[in-house]
Write a structure and sequence with these properties.
The complex is a heterodimer.
Chain A (H helix, E strand, L loop, with lengths): L13 H26 L5 H15 L2 H8 L25 H27 L14 H27 L12 H20 L5 H29 L9 H20 L4 H24 L7
Chain B lengths: L4 E6 L8 H9 L29 E9 L6 E9 L7 H5 L5 E3 L5 E3 L10 H4 L6 E2 L6 E2 L5 H5 L5 H5 L5 E5 H17 L6 E3 L10 E5 L19 H29 L2
Parallel strand pairs in B: 1-10
Antiparallel strand pairs in B: 1-8, 2-3, 4-5, 6-7, 9-10
Classes of the chains: A mainly alpha, B alpha+beta.
């Protein structure tokens, strides 16, 4: 038996699952938009605009979800400022600490990018000043730093689970990889749904991203089960069925029907991303501390 | 810093009286579970069942019976926070609420804790839980307030058989080694110390056991959660880089194919 079975559950439930899911979509959408901002040579204006919008609005509820999940929500500021000694609170080796700062910084960049694309799209009124943020070096710098923070937000949640002593989470280093791939798949799927009448070039690129990330995700999931070895026995039962449902309905079926029913395929991929995170988080939470 | 102190718990002399549990609850003013309602476990003579936010001491009953119940073996062990030299809870706490004291013990400062519950799954022994009154993570403080006043922790003072012994670590280690030797001489060859330097740099609350750690509900090779940080991060970064590169290449390929 793995030593992880002697630890106690964290009581992380649906609020955390939902945050992992939305954080993945926000991070993925921003990263995709930033990639075409940097290397798309202006050929994907709609994709950039929609991508930055999705990033902002998917990120918007995340801090509220996390604060609501605290047992002492009114003390959330202790994450940023040492409550007793004063001074900034930062521990790079604590995933929640570095994640809180990353979320804050990503929020700033997501807001700047949203204002910039809105300013560009509505060239009259006060918003137009922000269009400057899209031009020249400023635009590149925002895309580079924002894109990095977006990828961090999409992936660190898996690392956070692994930096514990819980069954499944601590028994594999692959959760961050799996969540990052899922973030790429779910966000390209969301963007494809929103851009279903968008530019052909953008759609073709997103479709390639969607399929590649979904296929890699399936591979990562298979590797995860092998890596867990005997620990994966905890999935015998309802959790295993849910995971199988995710692998088939959330990856295989969308890959097969992508050409015939693109919107349905994308919708299934997005739903799969939620199921994946729910199974990973809740199946470990359901294991009580081993008694004697 | 004063001398490191801790507990040496000799499970062979524990009689399961739970005086330590009661003394702990009284001194630390921990409330009764479920408003004092009598809740039976239904599967054991032990009704506390586990350490949590309002049980900082727990006397485990290991009840082993043969299928026809003609033979029985009872092991008792007063469990507590191990005050690890390398403490996982302290490392993962994002607000610095968990500190190491001048006595080399590990204490959660309740007024700084935000209740994010990162320390609960980080502890390899599953010691910490949320206290339903304060809504913060709580566990044994090794009676920090009593130590500062020069007193012995409440549980050790209450223990009627000296199963729980308190003192400077160096002193306790000598006593533990002598006790193991004594038991070996008496024919109890299985006796050994759980919690020397090989486990998380040493447990400041260590045990004398007479069976495998798992039998007592203890991990045989507990690990620091943060030791998993690098490999996990590396895989994640590799995944993100892979998708980024794929995105970049597929953007360029499309352009080249254009007339």
């Amino acid at each position: 038996m793995s030593d992880t079975f002697f630890s106690a559950p964290a009581h992380w439930h649906w609020l955390v699952v939902l945050y992992f899911f939305l954080g993945g979509i926000a991070g993925g959408s921003y990263a995709l938009a930033a990639l075409v901002t940097l290397f798309g040579r202006g050929a994907h204006r709609t994709l950039e605009r929609v991508g930055y919008h999705v990033a902002f609005f998917a990120l918007l509820p995340c801090p509220a979800l996390l604060i609501a999940d605290l047992d002492r929500p009114e003390r959330f500021w202790h994450l940023f400022w040492m409550s007793q000694r004063g001074g900034p609170m930062f521990k790079w080796w604590s995933p929640i600490s570095i994640g809180s700062w990353a979320l804050l910084a990503f929020g700033v960049f997501a807001t700047l990018s949203l204002l910039a694309v809105r300013g560009e799209h509505h060239p009259t009124g006060w918003l137009q000043v922000f269009a400057l943020l899209r031009r020249g070096l400023a635009g590149k710098i925002i895309a580079v730093f924002g894109g990095f923070l977006a990828l961090f937000t999409a992936g660190y949640t898996g690392v956070l689970l692994s930096v514990t002593n819980r069954p499944i989470w601590a028994d594999t280093p692959l959760l961050g990889l799996l969540f990052a791939l899922s973030a790429a798949a779910t966000s390209s799927a969301v963007l494809l749904i929103l851009l279903r009448r968008g530019e052909t070039a953008s759609r073709a690129w997103l479709e390639r991203m969607e399929r590649a990330s979904a296929a890699l995700e399936l591979g990562a999931l298979a590797l995860l089960v092998v890596w867990l070895g005997p620990v994966s026995r905890v999935w015998f039962g309802v959790w295993g069925l849910a995971l199988l449902g995710f692998a088939l309905g959330g990856i295989v079926v969308p890959l097969v029907i992508a050409r015939r029913a693109a919107v349905l395929a994308s919708a299934l991929l997005v739903a799969g991303g939620l199921v994946l995170r729910a199974v990973i988080v809740l199946s470990s939470e359901a294991i009580p501390k081993t008694g004697v | 810093m004063t001398e490191p102190v801790g507990f040496f718990t000799d499970t062979t002399v524990c009689i399961g009286c739970k005086a330590c549990e009661v003394a702990c609850k009284q001194w630390n003013e921990l409330g009764a579970t479920a408003g004092g309602q009598n809740e039976l476990s239904g599967m054991s003579y032990d009704n506390t069942r586990r350490l949590d936010g309002e049980h900082w001491r727990h006397v485990k009953f290991i009840e082993q019976f043969s299928p026809d119940r003609s033979e029985a073996r009872w092991l008792m062990m007063s469990d507590v926070c191990k005050h690890c030299v390398q403490a996982g809870c302290l490392e993962v706490c994002p607000v610095g609420a968990i500190v190491r004291t001048e006595f080399d013990t590990v204490v959660i400062q309740s007024d700084a804790c935000i209740g994010c519950r990162a320390c609960l799954p980080a502890c390899p022994f599953g010691v910490i839980d949320i206290n339903p009154v304060t809504h913060t993570a709580q566990k044994c403080t090794l009676c920090y307030d009593r130590l500062q006043a020069g007193l012995v922790p409440a549980c050790a003072q209450a223990c009627p058989t000296a199963s729980i012994q308190f003192g400077p670590i160096a002193d306790l280690k000598k006593r533990a080694a002598a006790r193991v030797e004594q038991l070996h001489a008496q024919g109890e060859k299985r006796a050994y110390i759980y919690g020397d330097e090989s486990i998380l740099g040493g447990l400041n609350a260590f045990y004398l056991l007479v069976d495998k750690p798992e039998v007592y509900g203890l991990p045989s090779a507990p690990a620091l959660p943060t030791k998993r940080l690098w490999l996990s991060s590396l895989f994640t970064a590799a995944g993100a880089t892979l998708m980024g590169l794929f995105g970049l290449i597929s953007l360029r390929t499309r352009r080249e194919n254009k007339p």
